[in-house]
Amino acid sequence: MNITAKLNDYRQSPRKVRLVAGLILGKGAEQALDILTVTVKRASDPLMSLVKSAIANAKANFNLNVEDLYVKSLTADNGAILYRRMPRARGVAYPIRKRISHITLILGVREEKAPVKALKSPKVAKKKITK
Question: What is the model's pTM?
């Protein structure tokens, strides 16, 4: 079961958002919130609200426990690009690309795995050492 939350048209480049996304990928939902609270990057606040939204979706719609949730997937894709111009020397205009991100968060549910029986180590044949 996957719980999805989206943030469209976030005005920061996807490359910068992916830096923060890599910190919480695969972590538990509560641990991801803890990491985002101490992260100094600008993308941490919108990602924190996105994780909180996904947790609220899991509680309200599926009655899931927060301890069982983890960040399964977090993608920051390109959105529309706003093109602006900056005047430069000799009357030349240089382009400025203001990038927009579409962020998609998928929370997964960790399932309890049955304990695996310990495998017996194979017996190693001992060679006789002759002198």
Answer: 0.81
